[in-house]
C-alpha cells in the first residue's frame, strides 16, 4: 500500500483527512480510488494536480507506476514563467 | 492629404517612398521599405530597438519623421555586414552569446557601431553609458559589453 | 569570469558553439511578431477602458462601422460566453470565462486598459478613427488597487460571485479573496517554543512587469471554410491554439499557429490577448489582420506579476538551527483570480530543511491587469521576505549568512514544506561555491555592503514532440515545438550532435508550427532545454537504431550484430571487421533505396524535472545625498545540473539577476487615486540599463539530474529568485538601514536613512 499525503487545500474535501494508505499501481488508479474514497474530492482531482512519488514530482502522467511501498504526495500543479 | 514623396539613401541604395506627414522613419523603413531589422519597442525614444544612423548620427528612428530622411543617408542593421562578411561587432556578438531573444540586438549593434566610429578604444564605463539608451531585458548587458569591448580591440588590431 | 564547469566529458555538450539562429539575429533578418506582412492585411486596434472599474451600459459601434475603410468591429458579443470552470491547460489551471472576459470585457471593465472592442481597418489612421467613433456608455464604479485594501470589509467587489475557496465553512458573501491556501509541516507552536530567538517581519513588494522589449504582436488570417492561420510571438503556440479555439468556439485542428521569433517573454507570453481578437476580426473582414500592442498597452493590459504582502516569522536556536517557520502571503491576482500564490507558498521555505512550517496564502483580485507568469512566478516575492528574515537572524546571532544557511540547507532527503522529499539537489554545493568565490573572499569596498541570499525553483517537464530528419547528404533537420527565447535551438542541436557524434553545424533546427508536429506545451517553467532535450535525445537514438537496422540489412547480418561507436556504424561480435564501417551519411545516401527516409520522432510527456537552487552575492553602495543604490559587484551561483551551452546558461543567470535588481531597486506599477497607471512607459517604469550595472559574474554548479540523459535541470527561473533579498541584505550593510519594502528606490532609501540618522 502506498502512503498518500494530501497537500494544500484538498483536505477540505476529505473531512480534514490528509494521510492514508491506498493500494494503487499507477497514478490513474490512485486518483480513481481517491475519488471513490472521497466523493467530494473527485471533481477536484482533475484540477491541475501534481503527484509526487518518492520525491519525484509528476504532472500529466496518469500511467506512471506507483510501487507498493511508495510515498505519494498530491500537490498543486506547478507551472512557471 | 496627399502623401509625401521622399528620396533618400538607405544602406547605400537610393530609395524612394511615400509617407504620411506623421509617419515615423521607423515605420517608413519597416512598412514602406520592408526593412524590418529596426524594431519598435516603445515608439517613444526610450528603448533604442529602432536605432539607425542618420548621416552618421545615432538616432531613434521612432522619433524621426519619415520626411526628415529626405536627401539624407540612412544606415540600418541590414547594411552592417559587408557582403558575406559579418561586421566584427556582429561576429563578436555571436561568439560572446551577447544576445538571447535578439530583439534588442539590431539596435544595440547599430549603437555600438556608432560608438566605435567615435571612440575606437572605449572603457567599460564608456560602453555602458553609450548603450544606456538601448534596453535589453534578457542579458543583463554583461555579454553585450564584453562583445563590444572585444570587437573594439579586434578592430583596433589590438 | 570564474568557471566551475568541469572539463567536459562530452564532445559537444558543454562547449560553446555559435547558435544556429544567430546570424539572422545579428543581421536583422530574423522575423519577430510584428515583422510579417501579408497581402491585403488590415490593421487591428483595441478600444480600451479609461476606467479602473465600471459597468458597461452600452456599446454603439454603428458610427465606427460606417467609416470608410473600417472592415470589422468586434465586441464581447462576438465571442461565445464561457462557463466558469477550472480546466487544466497551459500554465496550470485556467478559467475560460475569466480568460474570455479578460481579452474582451463583458458587462464590466475591471481595470484601466481592459479591452472593450476591437476594429480592423485599411490603415492605422482609420483604425484609430474607428476607435474614437465607438460610443461606450459606462457607469463608473468605485475601484480598489491595493491588495490589503481589497480584502477589507466594504471594499468594492469585482466579481459578485467570488466566494473564497479553501475556507471552511464556505463564506456566504462575495469577496475579493478568490482562495486561501495552506501548507503545513510538523507543529509550529512546538517549534517556536523551542526557539531562542524569533524574528517576525512584514514585507511589501510592488507589481512589476516582465518588460520584454518586443510588444505582443500577431497576424491572423481566417478563411471562409473555417480554417485559420496565426503568426504570433508567444512562448507556446500550441497553447495559443487551444486558447483561441476555445474562446472562439473553433476546431483546434483548423487553426495553424506559427510562432515567430520571440523578443522576450519571461512568462508574459504564455497567455492570449490580441490573438483571439485578430482571428475574430479576420473572420469578419475576410482579410488578414495584424495587431501590435503599443508599449503603453503592454504595461496597462498585459500581465505584470503580483505585488504582495508577505509576513514571515521564524524561530531559531542560538546555534542557528531553525526550529519553526511561518508565513502569510497575500498576492494581487489582478482583475481575475489566479495569482501565483500557491508556488509562492511552496517556494517560501524551500531552501531549508525544516520540521515545523506553516504557510498560508491568499489570492486577491483588484482593479489591475490580470497577472501573468513572470520567471519563477511567486517565488521571488515570498523568498524576498524569508531570505531577508534569515539575513536578520544571521546578523542578530552573529553567524555568517552562508554558515547559517549551510546549517539549515535543504539537501537530498530533506522533506520540502510542500510535502515530497528532495532528490539530489545542489544548494549546499552552491553555498560552498559562494564561500569559496573570489567575490565572497574579497574585502568589502569602503561605504559598501555585501549581502547574500538563496533561491529555488521546482522546474517542470511536460508534453513535448520533436522530429529529427536525416537528410540524403547526412545533414539533419531538427523540428521542435518549444519557442526559442534564448539559445534553445543551440542546446538541442548540441545534444543531438553529441548523440550522433556529428558536427553540430550539420544540424539545422526550426521551430515547427502547430500543424507540423504533435503537441508541445510552452516554453516556460524552465522546461524547454530539459523536455525538448529529452525528446531530441530520444529522436537521435531512434535515428541511430534505424541506421543500424539499415546497415544490418545491407550487410545481411542481424541487427544486434551492429553497433554505433564514435560516429560510425560497425559490425560487431563475430562480424567485426567483415564489413566496412559506415558513417551516418553513408546510410543517409542509401536510405531511400533501403526502405525510405530515416526520421526520428519523439512524442513524450517529459517527467523527471529536478529543482535548481541558486545563491547570489551582491555588493552595493548607497549615495547618502540622494538615496540611490548602486550595485557595485554581483555574482550569481546556480546549479544547472548540466550546462549544455554554458554561455546561454550564464546568460540566464545574468539576465534573471538583473531583472531581480530592477525589481529590488526601481521597478514598480504606480497608480493614481483614480485607479490609473501612472508610469506606463519605459521612461517612468525604469528597467535597468547598461550604465546601472556592473558585470554579473556567474558560477555554474553542476549536480546532475539523474533523470535527464545529460543531467539537465532547467535554469531559467531560479536566477530571479534571490536578487531582491541579496540586495536588501547588502543595502542593510551599505546604508545601515534594513528595508522591508520594494523597490528600494532613491526617495524611499533617502527617507529611511534620514529617519535612522544615517543621511
Ligand atoms: S522604438 Fe524607438 S526608442 Fe523604442
Ligand atoms: S536579447 Fe532580448 S532584449 Fe536583449
Polypeptide structure, described:
- The complex is a heterotrimer of chains A (81), B (158) and C (759).
- Chain A is an alpha+beta fold.
- Chain A has a single domain, classed as Roll (Ubiquitin-like (UB roll)).
- Chain A is built from one helix and five strands.
- A five-stranded mixed beta sheet of chain A has the order 2-1-5-3-4, covered by helices on one side.
- In chain A, strand 3 and strand 4 (56-59) form a beta hairpin.
- The N and C termini of chain B lie far apart (55 Å).
- In chain B, a hairpin with a 2-residue loop joins strand 1 and strand 2 (13-19).
- With 158 residues, chain B is α+β, with helices and mostly antiparallel strands.
- Chain B folds into two domains: 4-79, Beta-grasp domain (Ubiquitin-like (UB roll), Roll), CATH 3.10.20; 88-156, [2Fe-2S]-binding domain (DNA polymerase, domain 1, Orthogonal Bundle).
- Chain B has a five-stranded mixed beta sheet with strand order 2-1-5-3-4, with helices on both faces.
- The longest helix of chain B has 15 residues, at 142-156.
- By secondary structure, chain C is α+β, with helices and mostly antiparallel strands.
- Chain C has three domains: 42-141 and 216-292, Aldehyde oxidase/xanthine dehydrogenase, a/b hammerhead (Aldehyde Oxidoreductase, domain 3, Alpha-Beta Complex), CATH 3.90.1170; 308-459 and 610-755, Aldehyde Oxidoreductase, domain 4, CATH 3.30.365; 467-503 and 527-605, Aldehyde oxidase/xanthine dehydrogenase, molybdopterin binding domain (Aldehyde Oxidoreductase, domain 4), CATH 3.30.365.
- In chain C, 28% of the residues lie in helices and 25% in strands.
- Chain C has a seven-stranded mixed beta sheet, sandwiched between helices. A five-stranded mixed beta sheet of chain C has the order 9-19-18-17-10. A four-stranded mixed beta sheet of chain C has the order 20-28-29-30, with helices on both faces.
- In chain C, helix 10 (341-348) runs parallel beside helix 11 (379-397), helix 15 runs parallel beside helix 16 and helix 18 (646-665) crosses helix 19 (723-735).
- The longest helix of chain C has 28 residues, at 528-555.
- Chain C is globular and about 85 Å long.
- Chains in contact: A-C, B-C.
- At the B-C interface, helix 2, helix 3, helix 4 and helix 5 of B face helix 1 and helix 18 of C.
- One FE2/S2 (inorganic) cluster binds at residues 99-104, 136-139 of chain B.
